[in-house]
C-alpha cells in the first residue's frame, strides 16, 4: 500500500516537472541534518517526491516523549538511533531509495567540508542553535545551498540560504532573551513565569554556587547551621530517651497504675522532642522563611494592593494540621509520572513536595550542594522548582500550574505541534525542488502557521530575504 502511494505521488510529480527536471531530483544528492519532528516529515516527503539519494545525520535516540509527533517511530524503538530507525521506516514508502543513516554529531570531524562537498543541497531540521550555526558555516565554506527550517508551537519558517544570493543564518542577530524587573520577581509577581523565575533563583540560592548577583541572595539560609541545630536536637532527643529508659527501669517496682502513668508521660516527652526536632529541620526553616516571613515583609512595605489581592503568608503548621481533614493526596493516587505531570496538585501536596524534595537533595545529592545547576531534565530538580513555583503562585492568587507546564516555562520550551512540523517540512521540499530545477534565483523566506483562523487551518507566506 505504501509503495502504491509512493508510485502515484511520484507519477504526478513527474507529469508536473517533466522527465528532465524529474531526473535532476532523482540524481540529486541530499543531506538531511536532524531526524526529529521536522526531520521525520522531511524524509518521508523526500522519498515521496522522487529524491532517491539521501544521507541523514542525528545524534539522538528515541524517547517516549517523541512518539506523539515523530511518526516514523514506535514504542519498540525507544532507546534506538533516530536516524537509523527513520531510514528503515522511510524505506517502506520507497524501497528503491538509497538512504545512508549516521548516528553521530554533525560537529564530528568526519563531517567536515570535504564531506559536505559531495552534496547538491543540505536540508537542516535541527533544534540546536550551535549545530545550526555549524552547518551554516560549512555550507558557506563549501558554497552549498542550505534550506533552514524551524518551528515554535503553531508557527514555523523555512529559509533558503544560497551562497552569494541571500543572507546566511547568522546574518540576523538572535532575539534578546526575555527579562523581568527585579521588583516584579521579588514582590509583585502576577504571572506563572514570574514565580518560575523566582523558584529557579531559590534553587540556585540553596544548592548552587555562591552568587552575590542572585536577586534573592538576602534570603540565603545556612545549611550547615541548620544541620548543627538538627544534630543538637538529635543529641538532646537521644539523651531524653536514655533518661526515659533509666526512669522506666527505676520505677519497675511501682504498682501497675503508676507505671502506666509514667510510661504515658515518657511517650509524650519523646513525642514533643521529636516534633521540636522536626520543626527545626532545614526544609521547614526554609519553608517558613520563603513562604511566610518573606511575604510578611512584603506586606509591611506598604504597597498598594487595591488593584489585586494581597499575598497571603503560608502557615506550614496549619497546612500539615489540616491534612488529616483532607481527602487522600492527589499525587499518591496517580499511578504514573505522566498523570502526575498533567494534574494541578493541592496546596498540601505542593507543601509535601517541597519538604520531600528539599530533604532528598540534602541526603541524596549532598556532594552536589554548592555546585548544582538547574536542569529541566533532572526529575528531582524539576520537582523542587515546580513545588516552589506553585507555592509562590498560591500566595499571590495566581492559578497554580501542572508540572508539565512549569517544565515548559522553566526550560523555555515551546511544545512542538505535529501539524506545524508537517507544513514546514513540506515547504522545505518545495524550496529544494525550486532550487534544483528552476533557473530563477531562490531568495525568499517562507513562514507558516498551523493555528486555526476564521478562514483556514493553515497559512503560508513568503517574503524576500535581505
UniProtKB/TrEMBL annotation:
Domain THIF-type NAD/FAD binding fold: 15-445
Annotated active site: 183 (glycyl thioester intermediate)
Residues the record lists as binding ATP: 34-39, 58, 66-69, 82, 127-132
Predominant localisation class: nucleus
Record keyword Electron transport present: no
GO CC annotations on file: cytoplasm; SUMO activating enzyme complex
Disordered: region residues: 229-278, 443-466
InterPro entries according to UniProt: ThiF/MoeB/HesA, ThiF_NAD_FAD-bd, Ub-E1_IAD_1, Ub_act_enz_dom_a_sf, Uba2, UBA_E1_SCCH, Ubiquitin-activating_enz
Residue ranges of domain Ubiquitin-activating enzyme SCCH in the record: 321-407
Binding site for Zn(2+): 168, 171
Extent of Low complexity compositional bias: 229-254, 444-466
Residues in coiled coil: none
Keywords for this protein: ATP-binding, Metal-binding, Nucleotide-binding, Nucleus, Transferase, Ubl conjugation pathway, Zinc
One of the GO BP terms on file: protein sumoylation
Highest taxon, organism lineage: Eukaryota
Alphabetized GO MF terms: ATP binding; metal ion binding; SUMO activating enzyme activity; transferase activity
Subcellular location: Nucleus
Pathway linked to the protein: Protein modification; protein sumoylation
Record-linked PANTHER family: SUMO-ACTIVATING ENZYME SUBUNIT 2, UBIQUITIN-ACTIVATING ENZYME E1
Protein family: Belongs to the ubiquitin-activating E1 family.
Protein name: THIF-type NAD/FAD binding fold domain-containing protein
